[in-house]
Amino acid sequence: MTNRNSPHYLLIGSGRLATHLHHYFLEEGIVCKSWCRARDPQMKELKDLVNWADVVMLLISDRSLDDFYTEHLSSFPAKKIVHCSGSHRHPKMLGFHPLMSFSSGTLYPLDTYRSMAFVGDTPSQTFRQWFSQLDNPYFQIGAEDRAYYHCLCVLSGNLSTWLWQEVVKRMEGQLNIPRWALWPYMDRLAANLKEDLEKALTGPVVRGDQITIVENRAALIEKGDLSLEDLYQSFVRGVQKPRVGANHEDENSF
Fold first, then answer.
1. Quick one: pLDDT band at residue 111, thresholds 50, 70, 90?
2. Whole-angstrom Cα distance, residue 200 to residue 167?
3. How far lies 159's CA from each of 166, 167, 193, in Å?
4. Which is it for the CA torsion 243, 244, 249, 253, positive or negative?
5. How far apart are CA 77 and CA 100, in angstroms?
6. What is the rounded end-to-end Cα distance, in angstroms, of the chain?
7. Residues 233-253: b if buried by 16+ CB within 10 A, e if exposed
8. 43: left (phi > 0), else alpha (psi -120 to 50), else beta?
9. Could you report the per-residue pLDDT of 153-201, keeping only the tens digit for each?
């Protein structure tokens, strides 16, 4: 690292992650520049920017990481190179994954960025040295657990998001219930999870209400929603055993 008061960062990419992290760094007063191929298709500026930076962050798709490193960064063996993939591993790059979902439009308040954790398979001292101006929580996991960790992120975030998209589409298209009517329900679900995670799950599967479960599945089959019926079956199998603290008495829960 050059002899400066704080590291300089080059953020490579133009997607959601790159946009949000660039905004976050600027809000924190961190010296950073961004680069993407769309703004410099001939790559005339890339080499100078890499030389300028102390830490280069590859914020591009997982499938492009290895090729981009080989073609454009392998000639800088002493440079600190970071990617933010949850599962990808590369011998010449460190991976620090932000445990957060990033929107396609709205940028977040500074406190939101500060609260997100980073997860990697290197010691916390390394993260603190490479990102000395960030106070975000950091958690180290085993290198062999990166794919498993990322799978859990996909299930909790992407699967639940897809399910909400499918439900809203059917509520609006088939039942004429507008999406805004579902937002209080969504907000309450998230609040319940944070308030009491172990007791947040309700409904017929938790109660062991087999009649309602059969009726639910039959309704999905009747509507031709076989993908949701498969998911419902998997959900039932996942909640077969009694859950600690489950509310079996609230017959008015969905």
1. very high
2. 20
3. 11, 12, 16
4. negative
5. 30
6. 57
7. eeeeeeeeeeeeebeeeeeee
8. left
9. 999 999 999 999 999 999 999 999 999 999 999 999 999 999 999 999 9
Helix, strand, coil percentages (3-state) for the chain, rounded to 5, are 50, 10, 40
Helix or strand run (H / E) with residue 236: helix 226-238
Would you state the pLDDT for residue 6? 84
pLDDT in tens, 1-35: 444 568 999 999 999 999 999 999 999 999 999 99
Structure tokens at 20: 């949000």
The sign of the dihedral angle between the CA atoms of 47, 52, 54, 59 is: negative
Does the pLDDT at position 53 exceed 90? yes
CA distance linking residue 193 with residue 105, whole number of Å: 26
The whole-angstrom separation of Cα 106 and Cα 183 is 18
Identify whether the C-beta of residue 233 lies closer than 8 Å to the C-beta of residue 217: yes
Q: Is the dihedral of CA 58, 59, 60, 62 positive or negative?
A: positive
